């Protein structure tokens, strides 16, 4: 183990290659998280409601049938074919199977290998940018969490606390060693990130009577503020708002989407936060160069 760590420290190519392979495997797990975590949360909410409203009733099936990130084993949704180990190799298995179940030929969504490949590529970019060390490790972990949050929000318009708060605590803890920013900047960044969107939420609700965003967005921006510091929060907000506005207008114009239909803001925050973590200073410099 020590020899492997030393080799990664001495060889950037080996380090980035290792991150790429590990992140491919993690990407496969993230597909499970993206699909199962919202279902787990919904079942937990239903169970809590049932226990509160009907404390004497017990759903024996719910208690005896496990459903978590490990169990049950992955199966084909159509024929219930148990997916074997060789059918679950990131990207490769999808290509070998030509995007179909080996038993019933039911199509397998291309999103699965895309999530795996995106996880590996973005994680490798983070590793290359920071080089071997704590900053790269944290940036890669943040990348994994942001990818999971992005796709869950796209699917369910939900940002689970399990992910947003994990990222928040990671940002606060690593700030003790000034990994990205100081502890003071991280704490202020977390507080300002939350309060900023919380204030916009209530201002919009008081003016229109509608909810413009969810509490998960507040927590995500707080987590990003802890990572990049309060000084970089304007970059995150401007980037996410700019991209969100472009995508929203495009959906209305091209697809004829209803203006009142909500659009998840989490993916834009996640993308802007990731770019700011890696290239925030460069983006600020480019902005001022354009003005001056």
TrEMBL record:
Its EC number is 2.1.1.-, 3.4.23.43. GO terms for biological process: methylation; signal peptide processing. It catalyses: Typically cleaves a -Gly-|-Phe- bond to release an N-terminal, basic peptide of 5-8 residues from type IV prepilin, and then N-methylates the new N-terminal amino group, the methyl donor being S-adenosyl-L-methionine. Residues 141-249 form the Prepilin type IV endopeptidase peptidase domain. It is a multi-pass membrane protein. It holds the Pfam family Peptidase_A24. It comes from the Bacteria. Its main location: membrane. InterPro entries: Peptidase_A24A_bac, Prepilin_IV_endopep_pep, Prepilin_pept_A24_N, Prepilin_peptidase/N-MTase. GO terms for cellular component: plasma membrane. Keywords: Cell inner membrane, Cell membrane, Hydrolase, Membrane, Methyltransferase, Multifunctional enzyme, Protease, S-adenosyl-L-methionine, Transferase, Transmembrane, Transmembrane helix. It is found in: Cell inner membrane; Cell membrane. Plays an essential role in type IV pili and type II pseudopili formation by proteolytically removing the leader sequence from substrate proteins and subsequently monomethylating the alpha-amino group of the newly exposed N-terminal phenylalanine. PANTHER family: PREPILIN LEADER PEPTIDASE_N-METHYLTRANSFERASE-RELATED, TYPE 4 PREPILIN-LIKE PROTEINS LEADER PEPTIDE-PROCESSING ENZYME. This is Prepilin leader peptidase/N-methyltransferase.
